[in-house]
Each structure stands twice: as structure tokens, then as C-alpha cells.
Amino acid sequence: MTAKPLGVRIRKGATTLSFLAPVLIGIAVFFLYPLGSAVYFSFTKFDLLSVPEWVGLENYRKMADDPFLLQSIRNTLWMVVVFVPVRIIGAIGLSMLLTQFKRGAGFFRTVFYLPALIPPVAATIAFVYLLKPGTGPVNHVLALIGIDGPLWFNSPAWAKPSLVLLGLWAIGDLMVIFLAAVLGVPASLYEAASLDGANAWQRFRLITLPTIRPVVLFAAVTGVIYTLQYFDQAAVAGSIASGQATVGGGISTNFGFPEGSTFTYPLWLYTVGFRYNALGYANALAIGLFVVALAVTLFLLRRAKAFSGEES
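The structure assignment produced for this chain is given below.
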């Protein structure tokens, strides 16, 4: 085959770049430049009021001796280990349940999806009041059937499980994705398995789960990234449950209530940057979060073949 003239290749390359230009410019302006700036400022002492002062690795060394950072890491890891699997399992179970409805399926799908449309701050405020130990309707109902309800968001042991319950209530976004995947499983596979005597659990384990494993992988990756950045619900729940949602300099003084149990990594990052004006250290924390999220994502993607049931 005769090679195309250089001028033709250049014109084609320029045409291709012109179509890609909006995306490339967006990536450069809204991702690469902020990332590069964060890396640079993480090596400086910076407070927005003075010229950044280069301090080398001092901010990263400081992370090793930061007790609040260690506490926030423990809380965030707890959320990743518990919150993500519970949401995935709940979404799969709900999607399987919805496939069994013969009548009114559209109505129930809408009902289960609607909570996902409520803004997280409003949903969290509502949950805090519903689960309020003394006057909340949930504990009142539990008392009627002889159960002494827990303190929920006012208890260090129950605060994070309460956030998990909030996540389960707003599970509709993930449920819709799994519902589409479950409905896409060929009915002929279920019929063949039934003829071979497979029960419901065997059909799910041997047919449904292997078929939807790519969606499980997607839910795991996005769930981990979301939970590593868990901020709004933890901030609002701690502030409202404390009963003293005061702010100092625009920052709530009750983040992590009760006893630091809801103090996540993003909350500490935000506090360092905007309460203490230690933006150099805050950028170092942000880079650490980015590296961890990237590493976990790459690990899960490398396991994509195993999740999809393919041979390594």
C-alpha cells in the first residue's frame, strides 16, 4: 500500500485534534492543572494570604504524626469496608425482588428510586430527626413493640451504622443499574437450570451473579471512590446530632460528633484547609487521598477478569 503524502497525514491529524480539542482542553484545565497545582502546593507552607514557602516533604512527614488523620483514616476505612458491600448487596437484592413483581413493577421501581433524587443534605437532616433518640418516630415505634432503640447518631457505636442505613435508603441509583443488568440475563439460562433441578440460590450463584459481575465491578469501583470522598452526610449528621450546629469561620465546630466517630478523611482535609488555613498540608492530604483512590481503582480494574469470570 502506498504511503499517504505528509500533507494529507498532517491535515487528518489536525482534523482529529480539532474534534478532540474540547475534551483535551477540559482535561487540561479542570484536571491536569488543578492536580499539578495541588502537587506543588503540597510541598509548601501556604495560607492564601502570603507567598507559598517551599518546605519540601515536611507536610508529608507531618501526616505520620497526626492523630486526627489516623482517626479519620480508621473511620473512612470502616465506611469503605462496610458501606460499599452493604450498598451493593442491597441493590442486587432489591433488583432481584423487583423482577418478581408481575403487576405494578413500574410503580415500585419509581418508589424505590425516588429517595436517590433527594439532596444528600436534606436527606441527612431528615434521618437525624427520624432517628433522634428521645423524640424520633423510629425509636417511638420500636418502643411500642418492646424494643429499646439505640442512640443512633448520638452514639459512637451507632453513628456510622446510621450513615449506612441512610445510604441503603437512598439506594435507588445503584438499584436501577443492577435492575437493568439482571433483566438482561437470558431467560433461556434460567429455564435450562430449572430443568436441571437448580434451586433459586443456585440459579443466582451460577447464572445471575457471573452475568452481572462486570456491573458489580463498576459498582465496587465507583462505590470506593465515592466513600473515600464521603463528606456531606457525615458533616451534616455530626453537626445536627450534636444539637449545637455552630460555625466558626464558615466551618462547623462539631464535625465528627459523637466522639469523632463520623470524622472522615475529607472532613479532616476540609478542616485543615479552611479552619486552620494550612492549605499546604491540606493539599498534601488531598494528594494522599488521590493516590489511594487511584491505587484501589487500578487494583480493582486489574481484577476485572476475575470479576467477569474470565480466565487470567
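Interim note for the steering committee: The two ends are 38 Å apart (CA to CA). The first strand starts at residue 44 and ends at 45.
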